[in-house]
Design a protein that fits this description.
With 447 residues, this protein is mostly beta strands. It has 3 domains: 252 residues, no CATH class; 104 residues, no CATH class; 80 residues, no CATH class. It contains 4 helices and 31 strands. Strand 15 and strand 16 form a beta hairpin. The N and C termini lie close together (11 Å). The mean pLDDT is 94.
Length: 447
């Protein structure tokens, strides 16, 4: 059974904070799912860059080409600059970086006929768009074909909610192996690790004894299985992730870039960049034969029946979190190794947004909270919800009975759908202030 209640709270500044509180029976019912990929997701992303993101901070952005790869279209050039790579979005981005320049007026210039022909095919398919900031440099942003809308087909499920952080900002594309739309962080269901932990961020873990806790698992503590070979950090391999390492010198080792459960690149000479949306492994060539596209599995955390890593924690063992425990990249520090999400609001006490939290009460029963955010186009104080800072949201979660809880992906992604309907409004908006659902690559659902 699922119970939902919407509460209108009035804070100490006499501002409105609307909150939806959802309770359901069992963690076993909660599953990860991937929305149906949708080309409209790419067009919506381009619209967000054009209408919301770049106009607000034009001095922070270059001349950008957002591009996706349609089915059947081949990249115009092959390059081994970054090793052997199979993802077509990355191959195409490498080629465009070498042969495409965007002028100040937004018009393209091409180094060859092949590049021009490829770009025109992308444009004809509505799979490329130009968004210009004020930095006079061309940047290619590859976008994956894996995002869709939670609301599509939602009536067939009792509950749908957005889940993990994912690569969305151009600043998150910090290595040649990163693609917009890549979900980040640990996901576990019934002891199977669906996605590895990253960046030392906090995770919500539910174990087979029904205990619920906030912990910080690391990729270094897991075993990685590729082509029948079990790799362990410090024994027969070296694991590296950001922000501890930006690149690795190979020096007789094979470099393996991993994102999620796939090898995305293999390199034998020079240096290898560590994926911002994954991690890298150094291994002797005689230990493992590996190719891009090979599947990766993980061993460890077998007792965990459900786990998700997003962060920051909000409530831990009944105590409200009072500051950042999980680490986040600060875009204002140019000397720090970048890793997603770069534009996370770093003011724990005051930065407000729509928020989603997943946790449990003291008895271990699941609890889901959505704090409605302010419209990003027009907000009417006293009538519309203001959103919540993480400090405020921790207090809200505690008051609603959460004993252990973690912050999920908020902002424009934040939404809960019960039988296909939203009880609150999402904060991303079209120019006319109507709701604009943000596409996501991963969600949580109850059938």
């Amino acid at each position: 059974m699922i119970e939902s209640e919407v509460k209108t709270l009035i804070n100490e500044k006499n501002e409105i904070q609307r909150v939806q509180c959802v309770r359901f029976d069992s963690w076993e019912d909660l599953e990860f799912f991937k929305p149906v990929p949708n080309h409209e997701a790419f067009l919506r992303l381009c619209s967000m860059y054009k209408n919301l993101i770049v106009p607000k901070f034009p001095l922070a952005f270059s001349r950008m080409v957002l591009m996706r790869m349609p089915e059947g279209l081949r990249p115009p050039l092959n390059t081994l600059t970054y090793g052997r790579v199979t993802r077509r979005e990355l191959q195409a981005a490498y080629a465009l970086e070498r042969g495409l320049k965007i002028r100040a007026d937004g018009k393209p210039e091409f180094a060859s006929y092949k590049i021009a022909d490829f770009y025109e095919k992308l444009k004809a398919d509505l799979s490329a768009d130009v968004v210009c900031g004020l930095i006079p440099k061309t940047r290619i942003l590859p976008v994956g074909n894996n995002s869709g809308f939670l609301s599509e087909g939602a009536s067939a499920h009792s509950l749908r909610v957005n889940a993990s952080f994912f690569v969305m900002d151009c600043f998150d594309l910090a290595s040649p192996y990163d693609v917009i739309g890549t979900p980040l962080g640990l996901n576990i269901k019934n002891g199977e690790i669906l996605s590895p932990p990253l960046f030392g961020r906090e995770s919500l873990l539910v174990r087979d004894d029904r205990s619920v806790s906030i912990e910080t698992p690391r990729i270094h503590d897991l075993k990685v299985l590729i082509n029948g070979v079990l790799l362990r950090h410090g024994r027969n391999a070296v694991f590296a992730e950001r922000p501890e390492a930006k690149e690795l010198r190979l020096d007789g080792f094979t470099g393996i870039a991993i994102v999620g459960t796939r090898v995305v690149a293999v390199k034998e000479k020079g240096t290898m960049s560590v994926p911002a949306s994954g991690f890298a492994i150094l291994v002797k060539p005689e230990v493992l034969s590996v190719r891009p596209g090979d599947r990766v599995a993980y061993q460890g955390l077998k007792s965990v029946t459900f786990g998700i890593q997003v962060g920051n924690s909000l409530v831990k063992n009944g105590l409200k979190t009072t500051g950042f425990v999980s680490t986040f990249y600060n875009i204002k520090n140019p000397f720090e190794t970048p890793y997603p999400p770069s534009l996370y609001p770093l003011d724990f006490n005051n930065a407000r947004a729509a928020r989603i939290a997943l946790g449990a009460d003291k008895a271990g029963n699941p609890l889901l909270l959505w704090a409605e955010g302010a419209s990003k186009v027009k907000n009417n104080p006293g009538e519309d919800s203001t959103g919540a800072s993480l400090k405020e949201f921790a207090d809200i979660c505690k008051r609603q009975g959460m004993y252990n809880g973690i912050n999920l992906d908020g902002g424009g992604s934040a939404q809960i759908l019960l039988h296909g309907q939203r009880a609150l409004k999402i904060s991303d908006r079209h120019p006319n202030n109507s709701e604009m659902e943000r596409a996501v690559p991963l969600g949580l659902m109850i059938k």
